[in-house]
């Protein structure tokens, strides 16, 4: 599970102070605020390149469940 922190919280998260790390876990983004979807390929012959549209949801028929 990825952890998303504000830049100013990074050093605190990496500290060895257990109390500080526990405090920061209260600032974690709730799962309901995150979403995931497939995106277009960034490399290869079907790649669209590193453009903004690559982040849009994309459907791959080969990933369809049987």
Can I get a quick summary?
The protein is mostly helical and 66 residues long.
Task: Please explain how this structure is put together.
The chain has 66 residues and is an all-alpha fold. It has two domains: 1-34, no CATH class; 36-66, no CATH class. It contains two helices and no strands. The longest helix has 8 residues, at 18-25. It starts with 9 loop residues before the first helix and ends in a 41-residue tail after the last helix. The model has no long low-confidence stretch (mean pLDDT 78).
Essential attributes:
mainly alpha, 20% helix, 66 residues, single chain
What are the low-pLDDT stretches, counting only 5+ consecutive residues below 50? none
Largest sheet properties = none
Can you write the helix and strand succession as a string?
Answer: HH
Count structural domains: 2
| CA distance, first residue to last residue | 27 Å
* Nearest-integer average pLDDT: 78
Tell me, briefly, the overall form. elongated
């Amino acid at each position: 599970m990825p952890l998303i922190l504000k830049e100013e919280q990074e050093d605190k998260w990496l500290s060895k102070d257990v109390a500080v790390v526990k405090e920061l876990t209260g600032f974690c983004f709730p799962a309901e605020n995150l979403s995931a979807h497939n995106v277009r390929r960034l490399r290869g012959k079907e790649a669209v390149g590193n453009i903004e549209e690559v982040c849009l949801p994309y459907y791959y028929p080969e990933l369809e469940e049987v």
